Amino acid sequence: MIMVRLIDYQATEPISMVNNNNPIAIPHSPNHIVLAAICITIPKNANKNHVELIATVGLRGVSGTSQILFKIFRDGKEIFSAQEGVESDPTSEVNYIATFQAIDTNVKKGSHLYELTAENITNGTEAAVVGPISFSGLAIAHDDEGRDL
Known about the structure:
Layout: E1 4-15, E2 24-25, E3 33-42, E4 49-63, E5 66-74, E6 77-86, E7 95-105, E8 110-120, E9 126-142
Antiparallel strand pairs: 1-9, 2-9, 3-8, 4-7, 4-9, 5-6, 5-8
């Protein structure tokens, strides 16, 4: 029988609903904005583990067609990136929801800070975060007998 155990779960929701009246501008690369952060703790007896990270960000195109680069950092080191195109044409879609998942495997014991960031990598365009924003991390360990998930 395959055994796994939950070793930590953290979640944050800095913005719980869309609000086009209070947009947060997404800076152009190499600058970025930290959208959310969580701390996941891996105990010493969880050598075979993984952390499942799920992020959702509500976006709005302001001008042009922006390419938004999302990154997830663990303790300041980039471990994941994803890209989303956002248009601003008022006759089309201007609000978007980007949802993505990352899996961080065999994380060392201790507490780890995971940060979700966004940056606009397309010059001459503008995009904003309008909500919602959610970011969660679920840490799972293999059983003590070393069986795989």
